[in-house]
Amino acid sequence: MTNRPLLSVDGVTVDFDGFKALNSFSFILNSGETRVVIGPNGAGKSTLCDTIIGRVRPAEGHIYFEDVEITKMAEQDIVRQGICRKFQAPGVLPELTVSQNLELAAQRQYQWWKSLRQGVSAETRTIVEDMLERIELTHRKDEPAGLLSHGEKQWLEIGMVISTGAKLLLLDEPTAGMGPAETRRTAELIKSLGDSQTVLVIDHDMSFVEQLNASVTVMHQGKFLFQGDIEAVRQDENVAAVYLGKSA
Ligand SMILES: Nc1ncnc2c1ncn2[C@@H]1O[C@H](COP(=O)(O)OP(=O)(O)OP(=O)(O)O)[C@@H](O)[C@H]1O
To answer: Which residue, 143, 165, 187, sits at the end of a domain?
Structure first.
């Protein structure tokens, strides 16, 4: 991990008809780090992701990605800067095979009919084969993605997000609906990235957060509350009062 900021969120406020889902929220993500954002329901975690990716526009504040201001950029231009987001629900194309889904992501080609027509380069094939092994889906690569289990679809989509080669991966509850074994393997997959990609993870599952062994940012009512490792988070009285005391 370097200490070079990749993403800077600076005093961002998101106002939904007078309700501040983000309230002067600031934080910095360094290149190569994995950061987990936690906080009680309604803390503003998904709104933070929506705002970074350009789906929600802040009323105040600025967002910089690699020194480029992206606050007012169109969503597709923000993606082109090198940010890729995975939503809570799997977003795979069910009628295409597992391999084809990964090929689309690796080619950063979302008009899948074009991609299928153009064929797949040797480089893409290598990326896809490597990812199939890492997400343990090689044996199902030629099956339609719609036939995968929920956990397998989640993995496929995490694999797709990684395969885009985006510099910043936003993973919104990647373990939603997974059991303990699947959750463990998801943590291993994210950890295996090392500092090759920067990852921002939102999750409620404290055992997953612990397994990731990453720095944690705690949000509450749209504001920054605390940052530290999981032990420091557990010991902080303010965090305990608003979050861990209730749900961990
Ligand atoms: N489009 C919207 N219009 C009005 N209010 C919204 C909108 N989107 C989110 N909110 C409100 O903003 C607050 C923050 O929501 P957000 O989904 O960001 O929280 P969260 O921390 O991700 O919560 P959860 O853990 O439950 O997913 C909530 O009170 C929510 O009801």
So the answer is: 165
Return all residues near 61 (Cβ < 8 A) that are at least 6 apart: 9, 10, 11, 12, 13, 24, 25, 26, 71
Q: How far is the CA of 159 from the centre of ligand 1 (A)?
A: 27
190 inside domain: no
Whether residues 74 and 14 fall in one domain: yes
Rounded mean pLDDT for each run of 10 residues along the chain, 248 residues in total: 83 96 96 94 94 96 95 92 80 92 81 61 90 94 95 91 93 88 91 91 89 93 94 91 61
pTM attached to this predicted model = 0.89
pLDDT at 108: 72
Task: State whether 128 and 172 are in the same domain.
Answer: no
Regarding whether 172 and 54 lie in a shared domain, the answer is yes
Residue 235: give the domain boundaries: 1-82+168-177+200-247
Q: Which atom of ligand 1 is nearest to the CA of 16?
A: 4
Amino acid 58: pLDDT: 97
Taking CB atoms and a 6 Å cutoff, what residues make up the pocket around ligand 1?
Answer: 16, 19, 21, 39, 41-47
Helix (H) or strand (E) holding 247: helix 245-247
**Do residues 52 and 173 share a domain?**
yes
Which residue CA neighbors atom 24 of ligand 1 most closely?
Answer: 41
Distance CA 126, CA 15 (A): 45
Closest residue (by CA) to atom 29 of ligand 1?
42
Lookup: tokens for 146? 């719609």
Buried-exposed string 207-231: b where 16+ CB fall within 10 A, e elsewhere = ebbbbbebbbbbbbebbbbbbeebe
Which amino acid does the sequence have at 218?
V
Q: Quick one: pLDDT at residue 247?
A: 45
